[in-house]
Amino acid sequence: MSEIKRFAKEYLFLSNYYEAPVKYRGFTYGSSEAAYQAQKSGECELFTALRPHQSKVKARELPVREDWDDVKVNLMEEIVRAKFTQNSELAEKLISTGHALLLEGNGWHDTFWGIDDKTGEGENNLGKILMKIRDELRPEPSKTFCVLFDIRNEHIIKEQGLLSWGMHEYNNYNSFMATYENGDYPNLKYLPGVRLEFIPRVSGDWLKDSCAWLRKNAKRIDVLFIYHLYKRSLKHALVYKLHNPRGKIYLKMDGWSSTNGRHPLNYPKTYLLTKLCKCISTEFEENVAMLSHDWRREIISVANPINPEEVQKPRKFSQRSNTILNVGRPGSEQKAVEILLEAFAKIGREIPDWRLKIAGRIEENETLAEDFYAKYPDLMERVIFTGEIRDRQELIEMYRDAKIFAFPSRWESFGIALSEAMAQGCFPVVSKIFTSEKLTEGFKFGLGSEVDDVDGLAKNLLYACNHEAHIEQLALKGREAILKRCDLKQVCKLIAEKLK
């Protein structure tokens, strides 16, 4: 859960020192602080014209009512509630903090109303009051947003889980994901509030069981979220609209298959599916014009979002290790990790202080690691295969510790690992595929070489290892660009607008 640790700057409106008119028990004050201080003595009229700090000083000059310690929390809650219910623009700002933990961090050691900055201790009673009032002001979810997908644990922190969470967090949908139950979901702890609804595994056929579930539940779903131009997408859309004609469908396509024929639907079926959908998106702007022309309807560009909860201030390169990181499915034809291994072996002696870390479960070529170590035994200590990383925080720490992210893929749809690495401040060394070109903005923020070009990849890695100051600056600019492209709040706002 995100935190707001100080009521200052853009969050000054949370402070009682923020000046906004507050009517309370027959008097109008210039701030909630003045209204609160007036209650200590009961000499309320003396405080109506005082500014926040003046009211605090004045209250010290007057006798305090005997029951003050017994009533002060209730009085504060009433006054803060008046502040936000009487000032609609402040109420909107409070609601816009979502479900963030509100902590009144302070340097004056107030551990009753807030949290001491130095010790981290405090009851945070003002923060608790604000969060209570925020819950009161937040309208009840009026619409239901259902992600229909066979969810595994890894999907929770990908776009399936992030968009479900974001549509609830930022657009007040009652969101959930409908799925088979597929083991444990430890990643749920990273997105509090994400809900799973399990579809009975009656036949063991996902399409058959999901359609049966959809027939029974379509009427309670306002927006159905489906993926890609597959036969199952068309079947889900037809079943849903048959049982809920007023319901809306959001179809999300990736950036590669939408323009490269990687789907089994012929044009008439594709056209039918697109006509059933209220909103359709693809992951890159370059696909929008072509698809809009072919399908004679609006298509929007929606990037796969970055989890804002994972975005931290980037670690300086001086605080990182000399690590080249790759994350994915090593051994698979798509990821081309064998090309990366050969490139590193080619320059290993020239960069003796660097290591290569390969994160992910080895697929397809299961002897990838053993074959490499047999061929290059001298690199066994410097080339590390981590295996599958199930702990999300462990993976984030890998990103934050590495200086270079190597991405030699032969093809990708969006390149989630690349966007995540860039968001954590890694410098990308990539293959020249469409996805990498888009995410690095024409290789402005990274170095690119042709697919399967061992020499070209080795040359770029060597340059990056030997020019840390330069690549660190580019990495920071790339981070800013990717966070703007993959902003979850903006992505969800755009989808919500198109669903109206």
Summarize the structure.
The protein has helices at 32-41, 52-61, 68-86, 88-95, 125-137, 159-171, 206-217, 231-243, 257-260, 267-276, 285-295, 337-347, 368-375, 392-401, 416-423, 434-439, 454-466, 468-485, 488-498, and strands spanning 3-4, 19-24, 27-31, 101-102, 105-106, 115-116, 143-148, 173-179, 196-198, 223-227, 248-252, 279-282, 300-301, 323-327, 355-359, 383-387, 404-407, 427-431, 447-449.
Task: Quickly list its features.
single chain; 500 residues; alpha/beta; seven-stranded parallel beta sheet; six-stranded parallel beta sheet; 19 helices; globular
Structure description:
This protein is an alpha/beta fold. It is built from 19 helices and 19 strands. It has helices spanning 32-41, 52-61, 68-86, 88-95, 125-137, 159-171, 206-217, 231-243, 257-260, 267-276, 285-295, 337-347, 368-375, 392-401, 416-423, 434-439, 454-466, 468-485, 488-498; strands at residues 3-4, 19-24, 27-31, 101-102, 105-106, 115-116, 143-148, 173-179, 196-198, 223-227, 248-252, 279-282, 300-301, 323-327, 355-359, 383-387, 404-407, 427-431, 447-449. Strands 9-8-7-10-11-12-13 form a 7-stranded parallel sheet, sandwiched between helices. A 6-stranded parallel sheet has the order 16-15-14-17-18-19, with helices on both faces. Strand 12, helix 11 (285-295) and strand 13 form a beta-alpha-beta unit.
